[in-house]
Task: inverse folding
């Protein structure tokens, strides 16, 4: 019985995602029904080139983000007591909360034509350094966003490995390579397709970074074409067709990634060992420290640039402005609501997927529903926010309450948009806990909420709080859906930042970017405290 | 499934609250830099409310294009009485929607370069696109668009994408107005000079002020902001002898607004000093009507184009896609 209830909850969660995207599509399709000609006209040679570039840059960005992230996650996992480890993990969440243009300016402050490294690079290359515009600029910015994200998610997978395995490895005297092959790689391999798929989807939909750092319209993604179709040309039919294409292409890529992965066999024994001991030798310690340091510098560099330019702003005045107070409060409330909703939905989906997995014979292929519960939520990421916003605007306009609906929409969309991250963080731990506790719970007859509280929660509270931190960071930085709903109804910090930037107040914008980063860091610290506390 | 109950409550309340329909209320849709606390909105609201004894409500969206889209999506059910903030490149398409009513006010008090004669749209300010440069990095700026195009690629410029940005579209039309059928060739020459093409004005101007490029596509009025608000004369606009492309911002009343007497009152008010006084130093554009006093001297020092370039709104609407394709082809090579 309990099992079925879990599946029902998951299906309901999936239904909400479907409703959010389906409703938007229905709204736009209704608007497009007047004239479908734009849909067919969208497919021309230009589109083929744009689609090609979109996939090419997303593939490269994913490779460059995820491959180093494996090393970083492994290094972090093997040194639980690395000095400053907690701060590194928190810093790794900050890029998620930054609007793309702020991150782009951070990267340019170092590698731009007038960046910190422009003179050495000029000396090195022998000609005036023209800035990192073009494909390389896009890749650097994408890696800045996604390497820390991938590293944290992979670390989560490694931390779900039962402590006993590590103890056994230490007792057997396994070296670094043996424990990687036998313990770490299986865990990483199970998580990699999902993480790579997530990064891929984020890069497919990149917009501001691709245009700003791409150097010219040769660097154009499908997202730009969708935006143009809906905004300048107001052609809902073309926007719907292009979005469908974007989803189809991404689905193909993600399915391909899934075939590369493997499901990890659960470990049904109960953990008896305490948190695992460090197992690295001296030489490995040095290498791992170098890896962590390199990743930290890569992420901290642009963040430091953002901080430096933020400190030049009149922070004292900004901190006194009522508009800033209101925006900060709005951002906090929205982020918190969205994050709680997101974690609840993600738990429901993870639990339902696991329940389905246990129902089928081990050798049987997972059903479509089971796959959807795992990766389905991810496709929310490739539906452009402007499509969700415009679609729901059309759907809601009849009610006359579009303005009042704005905060609800923002929370729902942010919660669902953060789910792919949250599920990646929660699922490995949930599955591992389930593998260990299922029989015990059945024997003791503990079900429902009692089981969640007594048995499952202790194992998943760490990833659940990580997911909460992810979701809050993401929601803090979001801008997308607000645009069409009337910007004055939901004034968030990123919105205020762009508004200042759009009216010559660049210094204010830099100061607000710093405040946004600080708020994100503070929220992450709170979430991590919850994660550690017992 | 667990859903935060407060969301359900909020949603229910939102749907239950009936729209308050007050007689003496005017709803104006505009862009958000107009209603920002530093924009002209607050002063305009105060002045008009004092004059009419009514309630003026602004609803803000991102920019002029979003404004037109918003109206298209809402159609006849819109709450807007007035739409304020379309520009001359959008008026043709705006008229096509059939959602606007004739303004019914006298245009005697407004004057914009090239004159104005339109029964639907009333201009409230105007500006010229210009390349703004950093005088600490450039001593002699180009003196015409041709000079800019033909100068070598050493000095970089930042421009905006015509597919996503109003100034970007403005430059596209500017080049078209100057070069006509040879525009593609001009873009091919300009390509290597373009450091990058940003999605909007903010990103481009941010790159410019952070020193990435010494020149950016903006407005002739941009230096006035730096002089008045920051006391700096470092950034200047390059005056182009053969003229600058003009942008006129307009307002109009909707069909709904035609039934609200306050709408015509507002359009009339818009042409008076009470409204126009708020434009120069809050919207950073030139007022289309008389102000109660002379403008800040910083405005006198600005580039004054001897010739005004502007293409017909209908021509722009019909050719925009073809011209953007031409731009894409030249710039992607």
Result:
């Amino acid at each position: 019985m309990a099992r079925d209830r879990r599946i029902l909850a998951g299906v309901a969660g999936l239904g909400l995602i479907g409703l959010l995207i389906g409703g938007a599509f229905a709204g736009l399709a209704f608007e497009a029904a007047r004239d479908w000609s734009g849909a067919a006209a969208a497919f021309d040679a230009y589109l083929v080139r744009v689609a090609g570039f979109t996939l090419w840059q997303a593939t490269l960005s994913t490779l460059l983000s995820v491959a180093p992230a494996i090393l970083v996650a492994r290094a972090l996992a093997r040194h639980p007591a690395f000095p400053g480890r907690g701060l590194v993990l928190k810093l790794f969440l900050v890029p998620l909360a930054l609007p793309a243009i702020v991150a782009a300016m951070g990267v340019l402050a170092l590698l731009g034509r007038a960046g910190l490294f422009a003179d050495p690079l000029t000396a090195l290359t022998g000609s005036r350094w023209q800035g990192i515009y073009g494909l390389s600029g896009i890749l650097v910015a994408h890696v800045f966003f996604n390497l820390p994200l991938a590293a944290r998610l992979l670390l989560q997978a490694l931390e779900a490995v039962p402590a006993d395995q590590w103890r056994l490895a230490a007792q057997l005297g396994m070296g670094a390579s043996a424990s990687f092959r036998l313990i770490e790689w299986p865990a990483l391999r199970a998580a990699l397709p999902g993480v790579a798929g997530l990064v891929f989807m984020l890069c497919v939909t990149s917009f501001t970074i691709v245009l700003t750092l791409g150097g010219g319209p040769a660097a154009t993604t499908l997202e730009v074409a969708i935006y143009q179709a809906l905004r300048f040309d107001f052609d809902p039919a073309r926007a719907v067709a292009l979005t469908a294409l974007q989803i189809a292409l991404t689905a193909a890529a993600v399915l391909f990634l899934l075939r590369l992965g493997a499901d990890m066999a659960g470990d049904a024994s109960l953990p008896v060992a305490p948190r695992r001991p460090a197992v690295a030798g001296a030489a490995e310690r040095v290498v791992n420290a170098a890896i962590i340091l390199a990743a930290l510098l890569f992420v901290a560099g642009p963040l430091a640039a953002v901080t430096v330019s933020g400190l030049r702003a009149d922070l004292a005045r900004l901190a006194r402005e009522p508009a800033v107070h209101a925006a900060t409060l709005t951002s906090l409330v929205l982020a918190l609501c969205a994050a709680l909703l997101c974690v609840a939905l993600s738990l429901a989906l993870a639990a339902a997927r696991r329940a389905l997995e246990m129902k089928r014979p081990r050798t049987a292929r997972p059903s479509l529903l089971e796959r959807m519960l795992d990766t389905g939520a991810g496709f929310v990421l490739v539906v452009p926010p402007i499509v969700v916003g415009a679609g729901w605007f059309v759907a809601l306009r009849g009610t006359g309450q579009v303005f009042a609906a704005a905060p609800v929409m923002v929370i729902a969309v942010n919660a669902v948009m953060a789910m792919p991250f949250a599920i990646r963080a929660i699922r490995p731990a949930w599955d591992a806990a389930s593998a260990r506790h299922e029989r015990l719970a059945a024997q003791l007859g503990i079900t429902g909420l009692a089981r969640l509280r007594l048995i499952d929660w202790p194992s998943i509270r760490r990833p659940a709080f990580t997911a909460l931190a992810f979701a809050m960071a993401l929601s803090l930085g979001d801008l997308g859906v607000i645009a069409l709903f009337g910007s004055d109804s939901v004034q968030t910090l990123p919105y205020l930042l762009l508004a200042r930037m759009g009216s010559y107040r660049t210094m204010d914008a830099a100061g607000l970017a710093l405040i946004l980063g600080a708020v994100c860091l503070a929220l992450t610290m709170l979430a991590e405290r919850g994660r550690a506390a017992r | 499934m667990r859903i935060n109950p407060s969301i359900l409550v909020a949603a229910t309340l939102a749907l239950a609250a009936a729209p308050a329909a007050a007689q003496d209320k005017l709803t104006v849709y505009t862009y958000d830099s107009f209603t920002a606390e530093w924009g002209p909105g607050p002063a305009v609201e105060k002045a008009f409310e004092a004059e009419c004894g009514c309630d003026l409500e602004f609803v803000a969206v991102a920019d002029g294009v979003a404004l037109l889209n918003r109206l298209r999506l809402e159609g006849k059910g819109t709450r807007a009485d007035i739409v304020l903030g379309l520009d001359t490149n959008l008026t043709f398409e705006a008229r096509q929607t059939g959602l606007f009513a004739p303004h019914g006010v006298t245009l005697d008090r407004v004057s914009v370069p090239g004159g104005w004669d339109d029964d639907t749209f009333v201009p409230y300010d105007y500006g010229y696109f210009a390349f703004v440069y950093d005088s600490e990095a450039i001593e002699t700026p180009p003196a015409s668009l041709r000079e800019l195009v033909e100068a070598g690629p050493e000095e970089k410029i930042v421009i905006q994408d015509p597919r996503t940005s109003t100034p970007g579209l403005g430059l596209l039309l500017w080049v078209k107005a100057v070069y006509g059928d040879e525009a593609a060739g001009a873009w091919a020459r300009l390509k290597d000079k373009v450091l990058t093409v940003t999605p909007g004005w903010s990103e481009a101007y941010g790159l410019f002020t952070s020193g990435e490029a010494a020149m950016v596509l903006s407005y002739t009025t941009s230096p006035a902001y730096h002089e008045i608000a920051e006391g700096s004369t470092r950034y200047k606009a390059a005056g182009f002898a053969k003229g600058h492309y003009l942008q006129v911002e307009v307002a109009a009343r909707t069909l709904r607004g035609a039934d609200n007497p306050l709408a015509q009152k507002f359009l009339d008010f818009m042409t008076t000093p009470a409204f126009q006084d708020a434009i120069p130093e809050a919207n950073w554009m030139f007022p289309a009507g008389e102000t109660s006093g002379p403008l800040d001297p910083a405005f006198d020092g600005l580039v004054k184009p001897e010739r005004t370039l502007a293409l017909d709104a209908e021509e722009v609407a019909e050719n925009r896609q073809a011209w953007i394709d031409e731009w894409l082809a030249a710039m992607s090579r």
Notes: Chain B touches chain A through 72 residues (CB under 8 Å). Chain B has 16 helices and twelve strands. The two ends of chain B are 53 Å apart (CA to CA).
